[in-house]
């Protein structure tokens, strides 16, 4: 059944602000974007492809047709600025882009997962693109990952691609990604779920000249039959990014295991950090971030569906020098939250990361099914709190758009500092908007939380792509851990 996100304390938070629509100037898909006339001063940020000091956003449309090939998939890159994300300056990306290995083929689903981080240390974030339906030779649906390197104008014409060491039909390699500097060398690494294992490719200064990067396979804690969620974060605060995982040894409906693969000088270690946490089943999402501001990333999980007496229960496992503190796990005691824990980011700039709980199947106030909504729960020194919580949808005041049946608003989330004000902003995918065409909504962080000021809603037509059932926004790029 569809689920509701309930107002916190009986009051629905109102997101205020007025957004003005502007007419974008278009660039053809794949065409280079012009560099900004006056680049912002300052150090490049984790998801900054062009090095102007503002994070950038990539949106995937894995169901989009390319050159007549159904579900070949494409990606649209938009650039951050002092006023946030604008579609006036953008680039399109397909497998026909100059320098990208491969060609668009039916069912590739290029853009099914996205991440950003500087893997070669040149000061420009690189775009990591999963193509979960890619055929490798005669093996259909094996999947692949493409790394497109950044440049002063955004996407460069240099890219490399790789796949699982052992290709398996229908495996969907590249469908789940996480990034972090696991060996603390200043270069971002990328982890990909590969069935029972996690596949890791390390960043390197010569990566763009390495056509076949080394792929290391690690079995997650409690795994052996399958891997579910992965999330990067520095759980023990030692400066090395770690990888939180949920895996299962037998049947995912029977039991699962939450564990942490620790970062080290040689990269991710196969020896788990601290004790593993047993779960009733493996269908848990996992997100990592510093909820209580102590310098160590915590892990939040929830079921996203009914779980007996603990239905929709959020649980925060504190990070510590010895790993996750299972004994000190903090259960959410506020109103029941529908949906899933989808992202942690500091939206109000108070030093505590806040939790975005997304419910793309939420029914709106007019009874529209699967319209979607999300709730923001604030982090604090006393963990997640209902104080100052917000509920946001396409019907919220100041947010551009109107909630409709089948929008699936909240199906994906990405949070980064797109306007450079030191507060996390939020991109929200609505993959079903406009009868499956898909759209992305932008809202911005402020001292009072998310605000509709400057909100925009955009879809494929903003980039010169056809308005078709593409699932635009089904994947959004996220910055690396740490």
Brief description of this entry?
With 482 residues, the chain is mostly beta strands.
Structure report:
- With 482 residues, this protein is an all-beta fold.
- 1% of the residues lie in helices and 35% in strands.
- It has 1 helix and 30 strands.
- The chain has one helix at residues 433-436; strands at 57-61, 74-79, 86-93, 110-117, 126-131, 144-151, 154-162, 177-180, 189-194, 197-201, 216-218, 226-233, 242-248, 256-261, 277-279, 285-289, 298-302, 315-317, 319-320, 323-324, 330-331, 340-345, 354-359, 373-378, 385-392, 409-416, 425-430, 439-444, 451-458, 475-476.
- The strands form 8 sheets. A 4-stranded antiparallel β-sheet has the order 3-2-1-30, with no helix packed on it. The chain has a 4-stranded antiparallel β-sheet with strand order 4-5-6-7, with no helix packed on it.
- A hairpin with an 8-residue loop joins strand 22 and strand 23 (354-359).
- Residues 1-42 have low confidence and may be disordered.
Question: What is this structure's SSE topology?
Answer:
Blueprint: E1 57-61, E2 74-79, E3 86-93, E4 110-117, E5 126-131, E6 144-151, E7 154-162, E8 177-180, E9 189-194, E10 197-201, E11 216-218, E12 226-233, E13 242-248, E14 256-261, E15 277-279, E16 285-289, E17 298-302, E18 315-317, E19 319-320, E20 323-324, E21 330-331, E22 340-345, E23 354-359, E24 373-378, E25 385-392, E26 409-416, E27 425-430, H1 433-436, E28 439-444, E29 451-458, E30 475-476
Antiparallel strand pairs: 1-2, 1-30, 2-3, 4-5, 5-6, 6-7, 8-9, 9-10, 10-11, 12-13, 13-14, 14-15, 16-17, 17-18, 18-21, 19-20, 22-23, 23-24, 24-25, 26-27, 27-28, 28-29
């Amino acid at each position: 059944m569809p689920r509701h996100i309930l107002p916190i304390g009986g009051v629905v938070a109102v997101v205020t602000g007025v957004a003005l629509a502007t007419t974008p100037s278009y660039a053809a898909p794949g065409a280079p974007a012009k560099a900004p006339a006056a680049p912002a001063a300052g150090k490049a940020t984790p998801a900054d492809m062009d090095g102007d000091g503002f994070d950038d956003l990539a949106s995937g449309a894995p169901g989009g047709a390319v050159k007549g090939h159904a579900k070949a998939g494409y990606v649209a890159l938009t650039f951050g600025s002092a006023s946030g994300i604008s579609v006036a300056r953008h680039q399109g990306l397909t497998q026909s882009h100059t320098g990208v290995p491969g060609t668009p083929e039916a069912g590739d689903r290029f853009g099914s997962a996205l991440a950003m981080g500087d893997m070669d240390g040149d000061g420009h974030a690189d775009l990591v693109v999963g193509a979960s339906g890619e055929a490798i030779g005669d093996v259909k649906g094996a999947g692949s990952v493409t790394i497109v390197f950044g440049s002063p104008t955004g996407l460069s014409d240099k890219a490399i691609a790789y796949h699982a060491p052992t290709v398996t039909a229908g495996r969907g390699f590249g469908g789940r990604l996480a990034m972090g500097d696991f060996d603390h060398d200043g270069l971002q690494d990328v982890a990909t779920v590969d069935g029972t294992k996690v596949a890791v490719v390390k960043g390197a200064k010569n990566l763009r000249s390495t056509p076949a990067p080394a792929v290391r396979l690690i079995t997650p804690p409690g795994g052996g039959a399958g891997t579910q969620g992965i999330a990067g974060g520095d759980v023990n605060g030692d400066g090395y990014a770690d990888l939180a995982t949920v895996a299962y040894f037998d049947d995912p409906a029977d039991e699962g295991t939450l564990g942490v693969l620790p970062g080290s000088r040689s990269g991710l270690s196969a020896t788990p950090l601290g004790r593993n946490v047993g779960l009733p089943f493996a269908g848990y999402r996992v997100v990592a971030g510093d909820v209580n501001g102590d310098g160590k990333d915590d892990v939040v999980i929830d079921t996203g569906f009914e779980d007996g007496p603990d239905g929709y229960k959020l649980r925060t496992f504190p990070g510590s020098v010895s790993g996750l503190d299972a004994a000190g796990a903090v259960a959410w005691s506020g109103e029941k939250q529908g949906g899933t824990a989808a992202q942690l980011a500091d939206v109000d700039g108070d030093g505590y990361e806040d939790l975005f709980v997304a419910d793309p199947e939420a029914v709106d106030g007019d009874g529209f099914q699967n319209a979607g909504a999300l709730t923001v729960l604030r982090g604090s020194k006393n963990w997640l709190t209902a104080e100052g919580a917000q509920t946001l949808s396409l019907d919220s005041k100041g947010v551009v758009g109107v909630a409709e049946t089948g929008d699936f608003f909240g199906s994906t989330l990405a949070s980064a500092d797109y306007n450079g004000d030191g507060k996390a902003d939020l991109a929200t995918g609505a993959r079903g908007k406009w009868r499956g065409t898909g759209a992305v909504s932008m809202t911005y962080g402020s001292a009072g939380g998310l605000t509709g000021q400057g909100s925009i809603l955009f879809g494929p037509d903003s980039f010169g792509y056809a308005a078709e059932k593409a699932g635009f926004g089904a994947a959004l790029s996220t910055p690396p851990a740490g």
